Amino acid sequence: MKTSGNHQIECTSLPILSSRDRGWENILVEQFQHPAGEGRTCYSDEHAICLSLAPRPVRLVQTQGDRTRTGLYAKGDFCITPAKMPFFARWESDDRFLRIRIASRFIQGVAGEALAMNPNRLELMPEFQIRDRQLEAIGMMLLAELQPKNSGSRLYIESLANVLAVHLLRQYASAKPQPTIYAGGLPQHQLLQVLDYIHEHLHQDIKLADLADLLGISQFYLSHLFKQSLGTSPYQYLLGQRIERAKQLLKQTDRSITEIALMCGFHSHSRLSEQFRQLTGMTPRAFRTN
What we know:
about 40% helix, six-stranded mixed β-sheet, Arc Repressor Mutant, subunit A, Jelly Rolls
């Protein structure tokens, strides 16, 4: 449908990159590129965060609920639209942006479990045009995981989703949270339980929810207490253990690097090589022959 020479963009407009088929839970991340046009969205069960990726500022007219704002959106500018709030935008030139849709039930769960907030009274505030370096960093990390060369590890994505949820609640909720303080890290027997699980399932796509369920705590506090205990995140620990197993297999077997990648939980030869080089400074092939 065309309006005054522009394109009408609805909720069904196709992204150029999407996490829809990646199996990510509680969060949908999509990158869009559109010519001048306009569009409407309204998500009943998701909050929407849009990050501008436009190389040149784009003049936008935006309406959230009964409020309208006109301005130039530059790369790095955000808007936040809470669930159930109608959103309309009209842009006057080519626009590129990242849209993150995060489930409202997930936000409610994090609010109750991690921040001692009443999930039934939770309200996110709409924002038209903000700058938020932490929010931008999370958005760019999610965008990087959309690239075809990246696999989007479940543990990594779930960790980012939890960090995003906590940040939104701390910065953009109508009532500010009173976080529960957990000090001292995980008890030794619980830490060993998590480490044993990771060791036994290195070849699988481990989820943060799997580790949290072992101990009966929230994903947010599992990540928080794990890092207190070992000084690193569950994802970084998992990655390090996968590289260590790859080292053993490279030296002790004659299996192909592709086989070793799959045995260590990597989706491809190239993904293993990329992560191996980042952590060791050399390729798997060079390590094997060294």
